[in-house]
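Teaching soon. Invent one.


***
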Amino acid sequence: MAKLSFCPCTDETCEFNPANHDQGCNLCVEDSVKCREIPKCFFKAAGGDIDTIEDWSFEMFAKTVNDRK
């Protein structure tokens, strides 16, 4: 499976990375929600610097979005 062009995830050893299966983003999003986290692509779309983020929680995503206003 080819890497999706908009996917910022560089962990290609992750079983949920779209590069490793044919289910697109579904597995990544499902796993993130189970862990009460937001996928990296959402943080990137919100204007977050994904290279410096260590907390992928719902709360940090809300703060990231709020800080970008």
Notes: DSSP finds three helices and no strands in the chain. The helical segments are 26-34, 40-45, 58-67. Residues 18-67 form one domain.
